[in-house]
Design a protein that fits this description.
- The protein folds into two domains: 154 residues, no CATH class; 215 residues, 3-Layer(aba) Sandwich (Rossmann fold).
- Strand 5, helix 10 and strand 6 form a beta-alpha-beta unit.
- The chain has an eight-stranded mixed beta sheet, sandwiched between helices.
- By secondary structure, the chain is α/β, with parallel strands linked by helices.
- Helices cover 44% and strands 12% of the residues.
Amino acid sequence: MSNIKHWTRIGRHDLIPDVKHDEAARLSVIAHINSMLSSQVAPKVKAQFDNKVSADFEQRHGHAPADRHEVAAAMASDPTYQIWSTLRRNTMEMRQQAGRGIVLRQARELAEKADSINAGAPTLSLNPDLEIPDYVETGDQHLMPGGYAGEVVEGDVSGASNYDIGHFTTVMGTSGPYNDLAGRTLAAWISKTHPDLKPKRILDLGCGAGMNTLPIREAFPDAEIVAMDIAAPMLRYGHARAQSLGVEDIRFVQGEATDTGLEDNSFDLVFTAMVLHETSAEAVAGIFRETKRLVRDGGLVFHLEQPPYRQFGAFEQFMRDWDGRNNNEPFWSDLHESNLPDQMVEAGFAPESVFEAEAVATFFDDKSDSEDFGRAPKWYLVGARVGHDMTQDESNIGGPGLRAVN
């Protein structure tokens, strides 16, 4: 627990809300509870399964739990798991309650700050006529009231601000002061595995508040970057946040990732970061088709997610599936059971160009071995280098290699 970043260590910019002493203390307490669940309680859940629950299940059924569903049935009445799961759910609710209380009391002030930065900027394009999919408009993703697109005041950015401070709390600061660990990892992965790639145009689909877009800008300072999201509050916040951090040339555009309206063959690099699990299976297929349409020959497309369940045993699948069962992530389970490389091929990518890879975060030395409630912070990439026959050496960084798809 000594490596946790106290909430006051969060990176500062003009859109960070005013947080009073007691509010900061509350967020820090939540972070410390999350650390305890990750480092102390989660290993006990695994020990309980190994030492008792699995054997009891096998005695009753004649075989050990064969998949995550049987593990879930076996663990449902185990008190150690019940403690871990209940407290984890409670901390997620506490995170939303604490963060929402902070941003709602200053929602108008935050909106005015964003508007003062964004007004008239040619680099922010919103579309009030854009039709928002039902699962985005009505979904309170990971217990966040209003989800990404909900608005409570004119020009609202409160949900995005809540997400910013809440994410830092939930992962205990392990994503770095600016919550941009995924983006920094992606930038390093591209440099390591595709050093020849010098993209002139880059598209970040589902950019949210742009936290992972900015490290890509740092890695490719000469490229034109378009950051697209469907949620206007996230774009208002992300654009103002980037501007306040001195990044003034990223275009933030409101659009739908399955039908962007952008030109054919117009980008050298197209990516998503932790977006696919927030979308329906139909939308994932549409995103894959759209990225195929948008990428130029020689260009790179990839999608970052947590690893597919097929990489793990039944117990690890069960633990990683907690968000699908308990955190209002309705597409989580199906996404992580999907064969995404096959879906890339179905979307039109040549089989020899499609790859799977692993990206390991190495930038912030603060408890990164248990970033996600005891689950190792190993990200999974599925993608394609158009016109290239991918090899394991080209596609993989860190840890045991994942095969290229042939």
